[in-house]
């Protein structure tokens, strides 16, 4: 007599709000039954995932990447004195402070004006590509990466402050007129666009594949 077949393994417990038929409010966090259109607490529209999250994040990120080039290649400021007229980019300001003995200030400007915006865009691009391709690995690491982007985003306007500091400290004559160059607007737009891209990204999309969902 053959032994009975082994019992099937128990189904994994449902651990998400979506699996329990609940939907969370993006504004106040209250959970409501699926099918509810308005949050009973704050009145905000309810969505299981932010509508068109990846599309908006991708569009904002691409725009920031495009503007990142003129922000670093075009003049950040234009200095005009009685005898000379000069144009300085962010990088030329970094070089100036480095060669004149202000290495700490040069490193500060380089980090906040060139390195950190570039790393933010690279991190956001990694998250968007990983969700679109559905890679099943390192979800916790990517969630940690998103939390880092969120934390850095709170200090995003510090990038603009550092560039303003550079404009005020770069060498110019006593009878000089200093005005912002075309790179200033591009750099400010990069900062704002990366902030909006991080806000538009829905981190719950990272975990959707675990439950067989792909709501983008």
From TrEMBL:
Keywords associated with the record: Cell inner membrane, Cell membrane, Membrane, Transmembrane, Transmembrane helix
Membrane-spanning segments: 58-77, 97-130, 151-170, 182-201
UniProt keyword DNA damage present: no
Pfam families: PqiA
Subcellular location per the Swiss-Prot or TrEMBL entry: Cell inner membrane
Superkingdom to which the source organism belongs: Bacteria
PANTHER family: INTERMEMBRANE TRANSPORT PROTEIN PQIA, INTERMEMBRANE TRANSPORT PROTEIN PQIB-RELATED
Designated name of the protein: Paraquat-inducible protein A
Organism of derivation: Phaeospirillum tilakii
């Amino acid at each position: 007599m053959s032994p009975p077949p082994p019992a099937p393994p128990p189904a994994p417990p449902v651990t998400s709000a979506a699996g329990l038929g609940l939907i969370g409010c993006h504004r106040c966090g209250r959970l409501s039954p699926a099918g509810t259109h308005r949050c009973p607490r704050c009145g905000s529209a309810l969505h299981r995932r932010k509508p068109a999250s990846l599309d908006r994040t991708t569009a904002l990120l691409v725009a920031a990447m495009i503007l990142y080039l003129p922000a670093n290649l075009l003049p950040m400021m234009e200095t005009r004195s009685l005898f000379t007229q000069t144009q300085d980019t962010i990088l030329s300001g970094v070089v100036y402070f480095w060669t004149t003995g202000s290495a700490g200030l040069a490193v500060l400007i380089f980090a906040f004006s060139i390195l950190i915006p570039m790393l933010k865009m690279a991190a956001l691009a990694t998250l968007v590509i990983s969700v679109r391709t559905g890679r099943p690995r390192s979800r916790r690491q990517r969630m940690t990466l998103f939390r880092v982007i969120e934390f850095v985003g709170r200090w995003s306007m510090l990038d603009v402050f550092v560039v303003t500091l550079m404009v005020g400290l770069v060498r110019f004559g006593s009878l000089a007129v200093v005005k912002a160059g075309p790179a200033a607007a591009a750099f400010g737009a990069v900062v704002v666009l990366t902030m909006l891209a991080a806000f538009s990204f829905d981190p719950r999309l990272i975990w959707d594949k675990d439950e067989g969902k792909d709501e983008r």
